[in-house]
Amino acid sequence: MSSAPEPGDGRPGAAPEAPDSPPALEIDDLHVAVGEREILHGLGLAVAPGELHVLMGPNGSGKSTLANALLANPTYTVTSGAIRLHGDDVTALSTDQRAARGMFLGFQHPEAIPGVSVLNFLRQALAVRKGIPDLSVLEVRLSVMDWTARLGMDDAFLSRYLNEGFSGGEKKRNEVLQMALMEPEVAVLDETDSGLDVDALRVVAHGVQTVRDTRPHMGILLITHYQRILDHLAPDAVHVLLDGRIVASGGVELAETLEAEGFDAFRAGAAA
Ligand code: ADP
Ligand code: MG
Description:
Shape: globular
Low-confidence stretches: 1-14
CATH class: Alpha Beta
Strand content: 15-25%
Number of domains: 1
Number of helices: 8
Bound molecules: adenosine-5'-diphosphate, magnesium ion
Helix content: 25-40%
Structural class: alpha/beta
Mean pLDDT: 85
CATH architecture: 3-Layer(aba) Sandwich
CATH superfamily: P-loop containing nucleotide triphosphate hydrolases
Strand order of the largest sheet: 6-7-8-3-9-10
């Protein structure tokens, strides 16, 4: 953990916020079902502006269900509870409406879209975020090139088709690029570190931190199975998800317990 800054206090660029400012993202007693089956049983957490929270859970614990519910994927029904952005209830809003309000979701398995170049994809996504339907290609290309340079990416990438033949690392870099361009208020990243080798992981973590540095009030919820990305990013809070419930919330020491003892440590705690 030597390269990571201390979590919490003194982080450069942390936004000064009024004590009563609402969380960037608040998930309040969220129950989510697929068909008749309830998968999330009352999940709650609040990410203050500028904070990075990590949600960790084993396979099948409901991590992607949460990401899908946040995305407003219609397969995942919110049966009760609320999702709020800066205090505004967005639970009933569509994916595009949430995006327009500054919610960004990175996908666990981004799909290849044949015939859609990275640049065109970004142009469409930016149009939704900014509410401007006719952004010029030139305008988009200029802001994209600014970010590819900052993130150390090759511009040739932009004319390739979205995710076709991309390596795991390239897909994730593309997600970080999207996140940077969308200028989100809140970013939810689902297993951004899965399937990445150590170098790619470092690049992605660095990209996330670069975006954070330019948007210090942005809240991030990083959803992951592994603690290894925490070697490069210092979270303000860690939550442990088991069987659709948060069973522990705390600081980075929770991730250390996980690394040492695995999720079983929390299973025992949940049963006690
Ligand atoms: P994780 O991302 O933590 O591995 P998931 O949210 O993918 O967990 O899955 C949690 C549970 O919900 C699993 O039992 C899974 O089978 C179920 N589930 C998730 N999505 C669907 C779906 N679209 N249809 C049916 N069951 C689902
Ligand atoms: Mg998952």
